[in-house]
User: Fold this.
Amino acid sequence: MDEFMQAAIEEAEKGRDAGGVPIGSVLVYEGKIIGRGHSQRQQKGSAILHGEMSALEDAGRQPASVYRNSVIYTTLSPCPS
Assistant:
């Protein structure tokens, strides 16, 4: 299995173990994980703390070029826009 997908699955397991929905994500830039996260919607009563948003928040403030050239791995298809 791809190492980044495995990392996303590990994040999903953290969410499950914390009593939430098992959805995890990692943000990868130039072959390195720069952000990790899992869904915290139930644990924190948040409407926006999806796994993807948690990974972006964990990555912190980055130049736009970093985000443009990053790949997000997630254990669930992203919500439709």
DSSP finds four helices and three strands in the chain. The radius of gyration is 12 Å.
